[in-house]
Amino acid sequence: AQAAVDLIAQVAQFKASALKDATFVGSTLDGTNFSHSDVSGVSFEGLTLNGTNFGGTGLKNTSFKDVTLNDVSFRHSDVKHTIFDGAKMDKVTYALLKGAKAKLDNVKIV
Fold it and tell me: From the CB of residue 88, how many other CB atoms can be counted at a distance below 10 Å?
């Protein structure tokens, strides 16, 4: 069952939360802290994320399809099974994801 979350969360804290299979489509999550949470299977599709923290977060099958990522941290997160298809991101985020072996075949650097 997917829970739908439609919110504006600027500098919100979801630290160490279980959010598996939630949906944040249509939300504003600038500066949100998801560190050490489980967001496996969560959809962030089509969002623009600015300064969002996914450090140490469970991201298996999490979708960032068509997302714009600016200054987003994925430090200490396993991004090998995370979906970034069609995403746009800054150079630093791209370099860090590439170094972590994320699949970045269909992304654009902005």
Answer: 17
Strand partners of residue 28: 8
pLDDT in tens, 13-53: 788 888 887 878 788 888 999 999 999 999 999 999 999 99
- Cα 2 to Cα 110: distance, rounded to the nearest angstrom: 32
Asked whether the beta carbons of 59 and 38 are under 8 A apart, the reply is no
Q: What are phi and psi of 93, to 5 degrees?
A: -60, -45
Are residues 51 and 74 in contact, defined by beta-carbon separation less than 8 angstroms?
no
Percent of the chain with pLDDT over 70: 89
